[in-house]
Amino acid sequence: MNPIQQRPPYACYGGCRSYFLCFFFMTIMIYIIYSSNHLLTDDHQDCPIPLDISTQNNLQNFTPLTNLSSPSLQLKRQEEEQEQEPKEPEEDNLELAVPLSSQLFDTELKHIVFGIAASSKSWERRKQYIKQWWRPSVTRGVVWLDKPVRTRRNEGLPLIQISKDTSRFKYTNRQGDRSALRISRVVSETLKLGMEDVRWFVMGDDDTVFVVDNLVRVLSKYDHRQFYYIGSSSESHTQNMLFSYAMAYGGGGFAISYPLAIELAKMQDRCIQRYPGLYGSDDRMQACMAELGVPLTREAGFHQYDVYGDLLGLLAAHPTTPMVTIHHLDVVEPIFPGMNQVKSLERLFESIKFDSSSIMQQSICYHQNRSWSISISWGYVVQVVRGIVSPRELEMPTRTFLNWYRSADYTAYTFNTRPVTRHPCQKPFIFYMSSTRLDKGRRQTVGIYSRRRGKHPACRWKMDSPETIDSVTVLKRPDDLRWHKSPRRDCCRVMPSRRSSSMYLWVGNCRENEISIQQ
């Protein structure tokens, strides 16, 4: 073999290495050039990715962002969509264009229409309750009676109408009364009167007393264009079990938005026929709401007051929410002792006139030097108790009343209660509101609360007794916007007094870091 032709092994290895290096660098250059061209141009198709059916359907309705970069393509796509899809009504477009925030909190009293269920038998007596809260030429509504009654001019009462005949409807409840049928149709019949600019229909009985400004405040939280059924349950657990916890009690009052009232009127007569065995009008209304699929929106300020006796315990510890209604005034004792119920309401509305948003709102404070616990229900009552009682206990209603079945069973309520006193020395001294006026110069209300005279158990505690106090003066600035903020009790403070027989209290917004407890 020619030694020139026969290369040694290391010579072949070096040549092969150079060849492979050149091939490797050429491959990298080609890859870089191809990748650059692929990234810089969009004339390529994506590789198909296997997708499930739901993902494919969603992607079919997805508009790629690359189409939006070209105005001509975007305009072309819009024109194609306009040809394929029907146009929405212009009203809907205008409605959506208005920010939602500008449409809330603008409900006024003129937008509310009352439907009041009444009986000719009790009309002469109960119309006096309506006069206390009705505002002639301002409030709108109708009283629905079973029979005509004698009327007088300028009585300051709503329009009176006679309910339509309901004899065609079946009623099989042996414990109830057929009047429930006509009362259940009050909202529908009021709707059919055709009043204009209505947002809400509010149902109540002839012994239901409304705080109309608070009603407006509550309804202003809700969009009247939606379906709303607003009210509250009974205070009696047994009543709610027999009827329904999902039912708004008509005596406590409830509100129905205008669109819901329209839907109700379309189907209510057929709905009533399906429930001949129900007891009253409230449960028939709730049955129809269930068929419409509209639940009860609870507002604790609507009060059915299915109780007997003295409302002091309930009103002195009113929940932190606007007080909207009081009911069953013929059943409970007058809210101010020593006068009839009508006179009691007249006195209560003296305070409501100056600060309706704060009526019955509780404040709790303590007399540091005398170790007294003080609970104020603004516009109604002040209670002073020897010793330190925690706010947790003071905000709990005392059992000054009996439940709807006239028993002292404290487990029969839908809320916690406590005894009037746990110790003879801690029986509260009660000061009822006797007058309220507005001090325009200082922009504050001045309420005078006088002590109710009565015997108190003997007490051996070595501390000052509240029986030395004859009157309590409560100073407070009206606060119309209190319910635009998160709910919170007002704070109160004991102020200096020159007379030992008087006590001065200030009520208002809490300071920073202020709490209701003996410091």
Structure notes:
By secondary structure, this protein is an alpha/beta fold. 30% of the residues lie in helices and 19% in strands. It contains 15 helices and 19 strands. The chain has helices at 9-40, 53-60, 65-68, 71-84, 90-97, 123-133, 179-184, 186-191, 212-219, 237-242, 258-273, 281-292, 312-315, 341-355, 391-394; strands spanning 112-117, 140-145, 159-162, 200-205, 209-210, 229-231, 254-257, 297-298, 307-309, 325-326, 362-367, 372-377, 381-386, 401-403, 429-439, 444-451, 471-476, 490-495, 502-508. The strands form four sheets. Strands 11-12-13-15-16-17-19-18 form an eight-stranded mixed β-barrel. Strands 3-2-1-4-7-6-8 form a seven-stranded mixed sheet. Helix 6 (123-133) runs parallel beside helix 14 (341-355) and helix 11 packs across helix 12 (281-292). The longest helix is centred in the N-terminal third of the chain and has 32 residues, at 9-40. The chain is globular, with a radius of gyration of 37 Å. Residues 1-16 and 38-103 have low confidence and may be disordered.
- Give the helix/strand class: alpha/beta
Mean pLDDT: 85
User: Widest sheet: strand order?
Assistant: 11-12-13-15-16-17-19-18
Number of strands: 19
As residue ranges, the low-confidence spans are 1-16, 38-103
SS element count, helices: 15
Q: What's the alpha carbon Rg, rounded to whole Å?
A: 37 Å
Strand content of the residues, in percent? 15-25%
| Shape estimate | globular
What percent of residues adopt helix (DSSP H or I)? 25-40%
Please give the largest β-sheet: 8 strands, mixed, barrel
Q: How far is the N terminus from the C terminus?
A: 117 Å
